[in-house]
Amino acid sequence: MHEDFERCVRAVQAKDARFDGWFFTAVLTTRIYCRASCPVVPPKPENMSFYPSAAAAQEAGFRACKRCRPDASPGSPQWNERADLVARAMRLIADGVVDTDGVSGLAARLGYSVRQVERHVRAELGAGPLSLARAQRAQTARLLIETTGLSMIDVALAAGFGSVRTFNDTVREVFALSPTELRARVRTAPATAPGTLNLRLPYRKPLFPDNLFGHLVATGVPGVEEWHDGAYRRTLRLPHGPAVVALKPEDGHIGCRLTLADLRDLSTAISRCRRLLDLDADPVAVDEALVADGLLGPLVAAAPGRRVPRTVDGDEFAVRAVLGQQVSTAAARTHAARLVLAHGEPVDDPEGGLTHVFPDAAALAEIDPESLAMPQSRKRTLLGLVAELNDGELDLGAGSDWQRARERLHALPGFGPWTVESIAMRSLGDPDAFLPTDLGVKIAAKGLGLTPAAFAAHAEHWRPWRAYAVQHLWATGDHPINRLPAA
Questions:
Q1: Contacts of 339 (CB under 8 A, 6+ apart)
Q2: Helices (H) and strands (E) in the chain — how many of each?
Q3: Cα Rg of the chain, angstroms
Q4: Residue 154 pLDDT > 70, yes or no?
Q5: May I ask which residue range the UniProt record assigns to the signal sequence (predicted)?
Q6: Is omega for the bond preceding 239 within 30 degrees of 0, making it cis?
Q7: Mean pLDDT rounded to a whole number for the chain
Q8: How far is CA 434 from CA 189, 289, 322, 424, in A?
């Protein structure tokens, strides 16, 4: 996108928010960089230069605009749409892998050498993994400076900086203000409990929240998830400890209230919440492709901006998908709740009714098969999945290889197309995952006048957005997953 100069200029002149995060505009005369929708008067085209990432603009010596805050724009949707090396690397960087494991750890997760990862990422994004992680640390620091009363020493450590001096230098370089000056520009934040932050998660409009939150709440596991005071709340397992998040649809953003055991997990928590709600999607591109279909088009036009509800933990959803095989939603929730009570990590939640973090693969590997109230065939399926996850043979995380993960799942006993594609849609985040055998999808297809044979052929027209088509098909049924819960 950033290499199409004329298209970028038109987007900047139109202040088109759809392109926020797709590219960044550097102004040669002022040495600042902006998002496409910056409200200031656009510079002359000859004074514009375009970069594929905020990190690349920063590396080239430009500072972030104080008006449009380009460092806080929605992420590029291509990292969620693609499954190649660079896209996988970007998802892992956003998940905090470079901060916790370094570039060598990133390369190991991807199965490539450090040199290969550096070369591919820099060629496409104009900056290497360290610079991209540094840009993310700067944004995390800004959030902590502006939304908490932490001392600057604590902010520096929580944001992942190795020293206060590096923190100060980076903030001045990126924002052209010292940390103290950044805090002085913001009105005093409301008092919150230690470790609690109130944030706004931006997204590209439009957003249709009904199925997004309805699905999460209707399938939520008691003790792990709940709908409380008009917000979807759940527990998170993060690198440095558990957390609780409350997500609420607001006008133009998602309200996010995070309570963290360790503030170093802030950027990872934000990344996982954005992934859960599919906030970096490009709804205009998706809807334009699907609305052109004569059968699906009216459904898309009636509810533009549908997103795919995903997950904060790929392993967790895979386990829940197995528990939900051939049973009702209520039964699946009951099975999952029993696992949580027996093997989950307890958490304290004074603001609601959350009690546990969903157990990880290591905890589930200790399960006594006789304690599982389910058919023997499903026990074997569950235990086979848990063993594969615990051994590290199956990767369902942010940087996973979608095709390899599908192959590993298909090789496990008890894994049919519905389970594999459900995991591909929710855990892997594949926008083209498809569930033609799902009962709700089959009923919707019949309602559109499609026979089973015709449906498979017709669905080819919806590529590469079949996961979004499924959301529209599900919406034709009268089910709680299609409705925003009552406040």
A1: 319, 323, 358, 359, 364, 367
A2: 23, 11
A3: 22
A4: yes
A5: none
A6: no
A7: 94
A8: 44, 16, 17, 9
388 three-class SS: helix
Domains of the chain, each with CATH number or no CATH = 5-73 (3.40.10.10), 78-147+150-185 (1.10.10.60)
Indicate the residue type of 212: L
**Nearest one of 218, 236, 235 to 227, comparing CA atoms:** 218
Q: CA triplet 464, 12, 87: central angle to 5 degrees?
A: 35
- What span, in angstroms and rounded, lies between the C-alpha atoms of 320 and 314? 10
Q: Which of the four pLDDT bands, split at 50, 70 and 90, describes residue 478?
A: confident
Q: Is the dihedral of CA 433, 419, 310, 139 positive or negative?
A: negative
CA distance 156 to 134: 12
Please calculate the CA angle 201-205-211 and round it to the nearest 5 degrees.
Answer: 80
pTM: 0.93
Alpha helices in 53-113 (DSSP H): 54-59, 78-81, 85-94, 97-110
How far from each other are the two terminal CA atoms of the chain, in whole angstroms? 41
Q: Tell me the residue length of the chain.
A: 487
Strand ranges in 336-446 using DSSP code E only, listed in sequence order? 345-346, 356-357
What span, in angstroms and rounded, lies between the C-alpha atoms of 191 and 233? 20
What is the distance between the alpha carbons of residues 224 and 349, in angstroms, rounded to a whole number?
11
DSSP type of residue 237: E
| Ordered alpha helix ranges (H), 249-350 | 266-276, 283-291, 297-302, 314-323, 329-343
Asked if 278 and 207 touch (Cβ cutoff 8 Å), the reply is no
Least Cα distance to 54 among 17, 24, 10, 12 occurs for: 24
Q: And the tokens for 113?
A: 């050498």
pLDDT band at 192 (very low <50, low <70, confident <90, very high): low
pLDDT in tens, 422-467: 999 999 999 999 999 999 999 999 999 999 889 989 999 999 999 9
Determine the angle formed by the axes of helices 85-94 and 266-276, rounding to 10 degrees. 120
Residue 257 sits at φ, ψ, to 5 deg, of -115, 115
DSSP state of 480: G
Closest CA relative to residue 369, chosen from 384, 354, 355: 384
Q: 225 by DSSP, 3-state: which?
A: strand
82 has which bridge partners?
Answer: none
* 3-class secondary-structure state, position 232: strand
Q: Name the residues annotated as catalytic.
A: 34, 438
Structure tokens at 174: 């990126």
The DSSP code for 353 is -
Inter-residue contact 275 to 429 (CB < 8 Å): yes
Q: How far apart are CA 419 and CA 426, in angstroms?
A: 11
Return left, alpha or beta for 177; rule: phi > 0 is left, psi -120 to 50 is alpha, else beta: beta
CA distance 317 to 125: 31
